[in-house]
Amino acid sequence: MMIIVMRAAAALALAVLPLSVPTTVHAAVAVPEVVPIGVAVSALQVADESREGYRRELFRRWNAGENPADGCDTRREVLIAEAVEPPTIGPRCTLTGGSWWSYYDEQTVTSAGALDIDHMVPLAEAWDSGASAWTPARREAYANDQQQASSLVAVTARSNRSKADQDPFEWLPPASDALCRYASEWTATKLRWQLAVDQNEQDRLYDIAAGCGGSTVTYTPAP
Predict the structure, then answer these.
(1) What share of the chain is helix, strand, coil (3-state, %, to 5)?
(2) Could you please report the per-residue DSSP string of 17-48?
(3) Inter-residue contact 121 to 195 (CB < 8 Å)
């Protein structure tokens, strides 16, 4: 019943929110869409998934990052950006010191080596949901996406490996306070890259959204 109510409310909101048409400035700079989480979940395309042909190496990671001149690859740039206490950056972007907050399991981490950079929507799940049709260049852009902060997140290696390639129907962060943020960021990533969801996945997102009153999803359509 809760899912039906969420869908009805989202459908009504969608009637007045043009989610499918990104707002642009001078036809070049995309302005982020900010919508209620239930509306965002309703905007996701539902489709069957297929992992046929998937290989992890089809997504090139990590590349030279947003600033190739800094000597840091994508992984290290994300670690620097997400640090609660900044690490010291040494030769060849060696990171020492610093601290990070892993919101999946609410752990403070003081060693960069104990962190994984999680693709919010895992590479295999992205493949299942539409990335199988992309060019290699677009898959590389996805695997190294720092233009939307929710796409890549520094978390404990344990939580990332527990998640593996599972969607929210199959896995959720162990910290209950993380659920609304996680569902919002998962939905934002799928909308940004126009990736589909399967029915179980969308239903689980609706379930979470029902308990996240006031939460919004912020995303910018990928170029």
Answers:
(1) 45, 15, 40
(2) --TTS-EEETTTEEEPEEEEHHHHHHHSPB--
(3) yes
Cα separation, 203 vs 10, in Å, equals: 13
Instruction: Give CA–CA dist 67/57, Å, rounded.
Output: 23
**Exposed/middle/buried for residue 48 (C-beta within 10 Å: 0-12, 13-18, 19+):** exposed
Residue 143 has a pLDDT of 98
Tens digit of each residue's pLDDT (9 = 90 or more) over 40-75: 999 999 999 999 999 999 999 999 999 999 999 999
* Residue in the block written with tokens 């670690």: 79
Say if residues 144 and 62 touch (Cβ distance below 8 Å). Answer: yes
pLDDT in tens, 74-130: 999 999 999 999 999 999 999 999 999 999 999 999 999 999 999 999 999 999 999
